[in-house]
Design goal:
Two copies of one chain form a homodimer. The first copy, chain A, folds into two domains: 12-160, Creatine Amidinohydrolase, Chain A, domain 1, CATH 3.40.350.10; 162-377, Creatine Amidinohydrolase (Alpha-Beta Complex). In chain A, the strands form five sheets. A six-stranded mixed beta sheet of chain A has the order 4-3-2-1-5-6, with helices on both faces. In chain A, strands 7, 8, 9 and 10 form a four-stranded antiparallel beta sheet that branches. By secondary structure, the first copy, chain A, is of the alpha+beta class. The longest helix of chain A is centred in the C-terminal third of the chain and has 20 residues, at 270-289. In chain A, helix 1 (12-29) packs antiparallel against helix 6 (153-161), helix 4 (103-114) crosses helix 5 (134-143) and helix 9 (270-289) runs antiparallel to helix 10 (296-309). Chain A contains ten helices and 18 strands. At the A-B interface, helix 3, helix 5, helix 8 and strand 7 of A face helix 3, helix 5, helix 8 and strand 7 of B.
């Protein structure tokens, strides 16, 4: 039986708490005003929910002062949707107006909220970008020349990394729906089925099981492993002995799952079974290493020890997992050099990968919640032995 | 009967021609090297195709010198997929490495391709953003202090706006598939059906009809019009007298359609019928105004004349249509101030909107190819009278 969906949206207190946590971080970092421009950052703080971010035409700005609620400086087309959020200070212009697409309005709002000498925090570090034309950013800087701009990435990341109970419920829900779809993979994949057809049927199956959307679906198939883990499908039919991997980021109410499954078509040779077993034990090692106070670098080391102990080289993904939430991938990264400390409420993936043979790779991925006393799997764990369908 | 899909991908000559057109524009603008960072720009020039852009973790760089093919500076995880394109100069680093996520490698490539005093063009104008951390951009600038950076938006836009025959075939194809789905809307929508269910069924229907994905689906429903044209659906059931609008950006092989349909549930009152008729005639006026040499501002004026002549105010969208291609919306915009000259091969939408009553709006949209002697509708035209389902 399918679990009921958690309620959509969040209570206003959730957004107030997010603002207060951000403001505590701003105070510690000496930031007077936070400027957010990307979909996940704006949505996190405001609840503003629209697929319209697909259109690159219009910039959107959300400002959080040191005290009090945020102010939105947005295109007129977004006013009704923003008015449905907890944000009440909504300033609009009739975008697109390339000659001045919100720059003057934004500068006015900044001056009003923080003066001309304020310290404005903008996410400009790892995993961020500024979603506005670079020339407009230069114009904004020039129009408030004494504005001091600092990197707000650590402030935003520290808050967004730790999920609230309602956020976790949404991620758990979409993980379960995707797990159901993976469990039914034998219904849509098998010898002779084109890989592109498997992708299409899997996407439809996820929607029918209640996913809002399936923005991310990649995978591969090949004899003894696949060459590549980020490509769209080919029209090649699956053949006996192929390893099929699907990796999906499906969404419920804005929150992603991100995990994969590996299955063998018809039969699995020993090299493939061994690689699967190694990766399964690497995930075990990652799970065992999760506790508050542990570091992402420690998770990496624990997983790498299993892989290297079995004589494999790591794959080409560059890390063994990452944060998960409003984005398919978020801070932190499980690498040798990311020493982020795990805290209860963080949602991460464990994603060890290895090279089976030149050009043949395998990746396992599970989604995990960090608890006060360990870890909770949000994705239903992959079978211990490689499934053959 | 469903038309067969056009072939996927492009011949290598297509990419060579794109590079040569960009290089001609670069020469005219005094640009020695073009630096591209976003999915559509990188895909346009290289053919690099991956949903992995959903992960914000890693930056991707593509460099086009004044002569010859482009060079890719990308994370190692993308090497197999990039090697499948026409790009042969592929330089990788094991991202993510926040301490130096490609900056040194990129700086080295820039110095090698153009020296330390070259003029580097970067899209930084309307509808663009720089998809890399702003702090890394500053580091790059600091590491090549004599590098001259100019805005490449006009150069890139002028080339991308005019589509090749294979590009047009992909857009036409997805327009037809979406048109078929819209024609079957009565099968999935009607009195008592929740709006969220209509969205879900429509998305599934589009996938079953062959769309690769449906990244963009918005709409609204309400008595006498809808309040908002960019929101996701509510769980409210459709009621007699509601106007239902769905607007979709479905994708075939990377290329979008973008058009909508309005239908009435059970019955349509006179005010709604009149608004529908006005918008239909506004699209007629837009179509009649399309010819090479005409300007986007002229299309706006032609459509606005019909809307204002019927006594309406324009809606809150800010424009009456836009370019279409690898992005849901691209340059140009049909506004009073965008004087872009139409050229054969441009694919645009006509999207007049009006306010029926306070908080009640209606928008029509069709997709159109600019021909040497007029226009070809790529979307099957909406019925002249408002359909009632």
């Amino acid at each position: 039986m399918t679990a009921p969906s958690p309620p959509r949206g969040f209570e206003e207190q959730e957004f107030e708490a997010r603002a207060e946590r951000l403001q505590a971080g701003m105070a510690a970092a000496g930031i007077d005003l936070l400027l957010l421009t990307t979909e996940p950052d704006v949505r996190y703080l405001s609840g503003f929910d629209t697929p319209f971010w697909h259109s690159p035409t219009r910039p959107w700005f959300l400002l959080l002062p040191a005290l009090g609620p945020p102010a939105a400086v947005i295109p007129e087309i977004g006013a009704p949707a923003m008015a449905a959020t907890w944000v009440t200070d909504i300033r609009t212009w009739p975008a697109p107006v390339p000659a001045d697409d919100g720059v003057t309005l934004l500068a006015t709002a900044i001056r009003e909220l923080v003066g001309v000498r304020g310290t404005v925090g903008v996410p400009m570090g790892p995993e961020t970008h500024l979603r506005m034309p670079l020339a407009d950013w230069s114009r904004l800087r020039a129009s408030i020349p004494e504005m001091h701009v600092v990197d707000a990435t650590p402030t935003v990341a520290a808050v967004r990394m730790v999920k609230s109970a309602p956020e976790i419920a949404k991620i758990r829900h979409i993980c379960h729906r995707a797990g159901d779809a993976f469990d039914a993979l034998a219904d849509i994949a098998g010898e002779g089925v084109e890989l592109s057809s498997v992708f299409r049927r899997f996407r439809i199956d996820l929607l029918e099981r209640g996913a809002d959307d399936v923005p991310y679906l990649v995978g591969g198939a090949g004899p003894g492993g696949y060459a590549d883990v980020i490509s769209p499908p080919t029209d090649e039919p699956l053949r006996p002995g192929d390893v099929l991997m699907l990796d999906t980021g499906a969404v419920h109410d804005g929150y992603f799952c991100d995990f994969d499954r590996n299955v063998a078509i018809g039969r699995a040779d020993d090299a493939v079974r061994r690689a699967y077993d190694t990766l399964h034990r690497a995930v075990d090692a990652g799970l065992a290493a999760i506790q508050p106070g542990a570091r992402c670098s420690g998770l990496f080391t624990a997983m790498a020890a299993v892989i290297e102990g079995d004589g494999y080289r790591a794959g080409n993904v560059g890390r063994f997992g990452h944060g998960l939430g409003l984005q398919l991938t978020e801070w932190p990264s499980h690498t040798r050099t990311d020493h982020t400390v795990l805290r209860p409420g963080m949602v991460i993936t464990l994603e060890p990968g290895l090279t089976i043979a030149p050009g043949r790779t395998m990746v396992h991925e599970e989604d995990v919640l960090v608890l006060a006393d360990g870890a909770e799997l949000l994705s239903r764990r992959a079978p211990r032995e490689m499934p053959v369908i």
